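Work Package 3 committed the consortium to producing structural models of liganded targets before the mid-term review. Because experimental data for this complex are still outstanding, the team generated a predictive model from sequence and the ligand definition alone, so that downstream docking and mutagenesis planning could proceed in parallel. The input record is reproduced below exactly as it was submitted to the modelling pipeline, together with the SMILES string for fe (ii) ion.
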Amino acid sequence: MTQDLKNRIGIFDEISADIGRTKSFTRPSSLICSSKISDEDWRHLQNSANLYMNKCLPNNSFITDENELLETFAQNKDSIKNITPNGLIVPKRHTVLEYNLLVNAVARIINSAGIGDWITSWHIPLNLRIKHNEINEENMKRHHPTEHIHSDSWAGESADSVTVMIPIFGDTDHNRVTYYDPPDNFEDSWLGPLPSYADGAEIASRYEKLDFVPKKQHLILADFSTLHASHRDAGAGHRVSIDTTFVPVRKYKGGDGETIHPWRENERATHKVLSSLGETHLFHFPDSVDQQVDSQGGFKHPTNLVVKELE
Ligand SMILES: [Fe+2]
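The resulting structure, written out as tokens with the ligand in place, is given here.
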């Protein structure tokens, strides 16, 4: 096994051990950890995701039933302007309050898992994504459709990162993310930026698909040396989930250090900021729903975020 892979597994062993001090967890592979979220943290997350999604509906309705909410989203998907072809529900100025609540709920889950100190920086803003039951064929022609097997580093994120995924609503058993484990000869050099996810197909062919279905009310962490893809079984329903990434503290020597695509340098925040939204900081999105952001071929997050200091 390469030293690059040993280093990454070493960090996952330590992060899992820290989670294990307060929570149960499973390791679907040596580079993935899945841990159950407490009922109280889960209610915070579901309710804030619900409020945020309702705020995006044309008449700001208040639908509490998750199936009705997803169905209403599907029916209105052409009129909800802040959804990207990849299903990202993009925060805009009319959703500032609800979006900050949602981030608070995620930070709370990380704090309960006891891994806040592991986080050098978060990629912001984190994503709430809706994946409808049918593939958006237009999206498959773009540079970075999440249906292709990929590492987020191929879209310019730091190769040192960890992917965070939380399935929240809908048919998450059949409309989900599938994960792939690297071979023993994995090298960090495989994780550089690529013009499109399709350009990584040769690297992806070296990987092994894992028999792992991410579950609701679970926090799933996956090292960037794993690959993943959006997947729908035949007849699957809609799904909503959180996805984001952080760069963990590197306790070992060597390696190339954190490399971030230049367009992504502004998309970072500390865990302290994330944990203090509404108290010391606020994520502000100055764009109205009619202002579209050029995501520069998928290398930039499709929103404009200003981190406001409140004091
Ligand atoms: Fe991804």
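Reviewers should note the following from the model. Residues 150 and 200 are 7 Å apart (CA to CA). These observations will guide the Year 2 experiments.
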